[in-house]
Amino acid sequence: MEKKSLWKTITGSREASLVIVLVILCIFIASRNSTFLTLGSIEGLFKNYAVNFVLTCGMMLVLIIGGIDISIGSTLAFSGMTASLILRDFPETSVLVAFLISIAVGCVCGLIIGAIVAFGKVPPIICTLGAMSIYRGLAYLVAKNEWVSASEFSKAYKAFAQSRYLGFGLINNLVVIVIILLVIFYIVMKWTPIGRKVYAVGSNAEAALVSGIKVTKVKVACYTILGALAGLSGAMFTSLYASSQGNMGEGIEMDVIAACVVGGVSLNGGRGSVVGVFLGTLIISIIGKGLPMIGVSQFWQRAIKGLIILLAVIINVLVQRQMDKAALKRREI
Amino acid sequence: MAGKSGRTIIAEEKFSLKKLLVRWETFLVIIFILVNIMNANISDKYMSVPGLFNATNSFLSIAFLTLPMCYILLIGEIDISVGAQVALSAVLLGISFNAGLPMWLAVIVALGVGVVCGFINGIIAIKFTELNPMIITLGTQILFRGIAEMILKDQSTGGFTSVKWFSNLYWGKIGGVVPIMFVIFVICAVIFGVVMHKSTFGRRMYAVGSNKLAAKYSGINVPKMRLTIYTLTGLFCGICAVFASSQMGSARPNVGSGYELDAIGMCVLGGVLTDGGKGNFIGAMISVFLLGLLKYGLGLVNVSSNIMLVVKGALLIFAVMIPHLNLGRFFKKRAVKAA
Predict the structure, then answer these.
(1) For a tag site, which of A89, A333, B152, B166 has the least CB within 10 Å?
(2) With an 8 Å Cβ cutoff, is B147 touching chain A?
(3) What was the ipTM of the complex prediction?
């Protein structure tokens, strides 16, 4: 096999171009504000955007099988709210139990969506559009329009997001969760039959079916995993902000989808990698965290974010076209 | 060709009662009547001319978005930036009015902003055909609302009520009975319906929605059509912004959040599915009134908005799922027909 030159490997891979964007972004922000690239600031970044990292992992799965889920913000709110209410009414509930409850609720939410999409043959966007308003309504209903404030949480729960006992005193607990998830997803997606099946279903569902993959099962599993991760982020969210409101996580689905797309996941399915998704989320989070640090007004942030998302996807297309052209040229006739 | 392949193409469908009964629209009409009976039971004043017009006025400004949304869904695309376009148009209407422009000019500015926003969506969509319309409008959604936020920060802009004819757009009634907005909506809806079902453009939209590539090879200028429809959507976002501002008398950057979901939901319940090439206009219009009146009725009995969220979502999912369930041959037939 012909060995590729280093230059071609770099220009040919999406991840490499993302790293370049990331480095430029970091240098730009660091040159304006020297506190940006300090250890504490970086940990803060990962801690505050841990929820986004968790959700993008799951969203990547669903996007790869050619689906989409815009209900995760509502699932996050519903499961986080359920866990917080249990913590409020039974203060002796342990942190682990609260997290498990939240994950279980999210799991059920995801399972319902998966079943409707796979067996009911409802287009995912429509199904999750409906689910988005159902779960949001439920989040308000279970809480009876109230919210759980910091004083009503147990101390251990509030401390969980701020302490480092899972990371052996070095890394914040939430960041540990993110790292574990990323490693699991990387291994599963890259080297196991399960990961291959997901890609197969996304590239060509009919071919996958014919070659013996249980397509409906894979689909249900992907939506359920995303639901479970949304449940996990619900618990992380409430623990981090030490409060639980019915409107939490509103609009987070757009950030998550945007991060996936910037990271090179195709909305048509079958394409996307964990590394790319990680870099995409990192870029979106740095924009969110870094812009206020260099004195950009908070009212400008949304517009800048939108512009960057648009530019990223357009550049992605241009790079892809260039790559296709180069591939055609190299082909021997 | 008919003899060779053994197939014949029947140009005219014969009228049959059975066919009429299994149509999706019939189903919608039944629910529609049920909703009206429910509303009439809730309030004595509902089944009167002013009562009905009051009810319709509560949701008609969103209904303007469903007209172009039908077209967008019909050609197999989606636009989730409509809410943000409404916000940007409304904010710029307020800004230009408060900067001293006369109201009619401010209205034109709002419509112009809508057109420009829609044009941007369209031009990105046709220049980068690889991109899924969902992701384009996701980006522009954040961008447009971001610009609205950039202009207005967390303030609001108002004072529209000082211009009498402007507030009359929403609140005014012709002859004291028929709301002006209702008349404008009916005119627009009729034009949209006729274009969709009786014109070449309409047939071409069905063709593009069913198979873009085949449509292209049969000589339809697909990019031009997409650009037109996206721009049209922008224009109607501007119109929606004008009516929403007239109703509220002020504008904020968060105007119209969630409108995209309402508009898409109304179309989909009406049978204009997201796959493209399916559905008809009457169904969408019935579903606009169905959902709007349902919301109004639930509001009358003080059903909390949270339960309404759940009902709305469940209705949407069930509406799309029912044709796929094996509930017997009735629904199977409809599924085949729709495909």
Answers:
(1) A333
(2) yes
(3) 0.79
